[in-house]
Amino acid sequence: MTVVREPPLVSAAGAHPLGADAPACPAPHHRAARAAVAVAVTLLATALVLSLRLPDTAVAQNWSLAWAGLDVTTAVAALATAALLRAGDRRAALAAAAGSALLVIDAWFDVCTSTPGLARTVAVAEAVLLELPFSVLAGRLALRLLTPASPVGASGPAHVSAAL
Predict the structure, then answer these.
(1) Mean pLDDT score, 26-51
(2) What residues pair up with 157 in beta bridges, in sequence order?
(3) Any alpha helices (H) in the chain, and if so which ranges?
(4) Which pTM was predicted?
């Protein structure tokens, strides 16, 4: 088993990594953080405008292609996670995080675009019983793989079963 040791994110006193005692971000990261905030503010403003101006219903072109594409992309994220775990590659955390986000997106759009009645009931049931629990598991796996000094062996992280 290969053990990867990384410096701890928490100081010896146990302070939070983003607390007052954390070292300052290097300049490139500081600029990237500002850019991320600018993107978030822009997207929130856009979401507000869209929520006020878009119609409640619309006819969409390539509806089935869009849904199939989302499901295939989610499946690819799951397969990439499995392949990277099998190879003992910590980058499995990236695929797991992407899969987690895609599952939440799938649940959100399933519920929001379903028609009232049986279709909505099925969409909510799938979200609650499948998509959101799998998203939580994938997110937990991603976080465990990102934990400093987590062991990663040839057959994958020793702690993966604990995440699930």
Answers:
(1) 90
(2) 152
(3) 27-53, 63-86, 92-113, 118-126, 132-146, 160-163
(4) 0.73
How do residues 14-28 score in pLDDT, each as one tens digit?
554 445 555 565 667
Contacts 24+ apart (CB under 8 A), 17-20: none
Helix pair angle (132-146, 63-86), 10° resolution: 40
Cβ atoms < 10 Å from Cβ of 77: 21
CA-closest candidate to residue 137, choices 73, 71, 67, 81? 81
Sign of the C-alpha dihedral computed for residues 140, 142, 147 and 152 taken in this order = positive
Q: How far is CA 85 from the centre of its chain?
A: 17
Q: How many other C-beta atoms lie within 10 A of the C-beta of residue 99? A: 26
Give the Cβ contact number of residue 100 at 10 Å: 24
Count of Cβ atoms closer than 10 Å to residue 138 Cβ = 27
Task: Give dist(CA 6, CA 9) in Å, integer.
Answer: 9
